[in-house]
Amino acid sequence: LLKLNGHDKVLDLGCGWGGMLKYLQDTGHRGELTGFTLSKEQLTYDRQKLGLNVSLTNFITAPFEHAPYDRIFSIGALEHVRPSELKGLYQKIYDALVPGGLAVHQFFSFERESYPASGVMLQLFFPGSLLVMHRNHVEAAESVGFRITHDSIHDYKPTIRAWYDRLVKNSEESQALVGLEIHNRYMTFFPIAWLFFQQKEAALHRIVMEKLVK
Hints:
Blueprint lengths: L9 E4 L5 H8 L6 E5 L2 H10 L4 E3 L12 E7 L7 H14 E14 L7 H4 L12 H10 L2 E9 L2 H13 L1 H8 L1 H19 L3 E10 L3
Parallel strand pairs: 1-2, 1-4, 2-3, 4-5
Antiparallel strand pairs: 5-7, 6-7
Helix pairs in contact: 3-5, 6-8, 7-8
């Protein structure tokens, strides 16, 4: 979906432990790769272990100082953008792209009203975040000038099931690392998250937004 040519200047919003940037680096991408994270632990890991160009930056509030970029993408980051912040963020992404540039995002969004009770449970794990209705994402993006060229729905349940199975398999190591209370919290979270998608309260979208050449 990114349609990279190998020399694009790329920004990863919420790059986490650097998996996607590392993949691009390892597969021969020669353009500038940059990532933003809010985690000091991830920052240290990405820089020291992976050799990535990552900064401790809040992509909602901070300026994109090294714009313009050819591609801006995020994986599992827009879920943490509150509804009131959405249009401003899309405007900032739009302004930071070159004409013809692409923004590619993978994220969860609500598919229907009203706010499901399971969303309250998610506050235990993602305090302060609030999923947005998918049509609000599309409307906000289009209102700042983006043209939506791709929007597909994918199944996140296999991923959640894989995480759950691995947690069960590594139960003793997990409890040694974080303690029984946190371990049990995630043993509860994964089935609830699986049901969240099974009941179609939310869906996983991959969406491509193009900044038109004027």
